[in-house]
Amino acid sequence: MAQWDPETGKVRPVWTIRFSAWWIFVGCAIAAVVTTIVLLLTLVTGSADDQLNDSGSVFQGAIFLLGIVFAVFVLVGPALAWGLGFMLRNNENQGMHVLAFALLGAVVGFLIGNFVGLGTVVAPAAGIGAAVGRWAISSQAKI
């Protein structure tokens, strides 16, 4: 929970599970790639538009989507991961962490996706991506 730090004279929270900044970035990058793949597959397989059947437009769209999703995950992801990690700092159950990241990803994906009218499409993809990103770096946790 908390521990007295005699050097500073303050009570400091104890983090049971923590990651280095590098692994947080790697988790965000993995989440961005997985979210892009899920989102691209959702849009391509669910669309009746003939323009999506052209491999050139699908490739260009995939690169564009990866750039946008990667930028959002790198800019917003570490701060949200720290905040959620702070709330879960005393819970050693990695499965609960993965579920919490899935829920956070879905909520943030829904909120950001609503800016372009695709909240219900982006939310599941972001939830899956965030969960996979957190699961992928679970072995790097310092317990």
Give a summary of the structure in a few sentences.
By secondary structure, this protein is mainly alpha-helical.
Provide keyphrases for this structure.
4 helices; two-stranded antiparallel sheet; elongated; mainly alpha; 143 residues
Poorly predicted regions are none
Largest sheet: 2 strands, antiparallel
What's the number of extended β-strand segments?
A: 2
Mean pLDDT across every amino acid position: 84
Order of helices and strands: EEHHHH
The main sheet orders its strands as 1-2
Amino-to-carboxy terminus distance? 14 Å
Quaternary organization: single chain
Number of H/I helices: 4
Strand content: 5-15%
- Helical content band: 55-70%
User: Looking at the structure, what is the overall shape?
Assistant: elongated
Determine Rg (CA atoms, Å): 18 Å
Topology (elements, then pairings):
Elements: E1 2-5, E2 10-13, H1 21-45, H2 55-87, H3 94-113, H4 119-136
Antiparallel strand pairs: 1-2
Helix pairs in contact: 1-2, 1-4, 2-3, 3-4
Protein architecture, described:
Strands 1-2 form a two-stranded antiparallel ribbon. The model has no long low-confidence stretch (mean pLDDT 84). It has one domain. The chain has four helices and two strands; from the N terminus they run E-E-H-H-H-H. It is elongated, with a radius of gyration of 18 Å. Helix 3 runs antiparallel to helix 4. A hairpin with a 4-residue loop joins strand 1 and strand 2. The chain is mostly helical and 143 residues long. It is 67% helix and 6% strand.
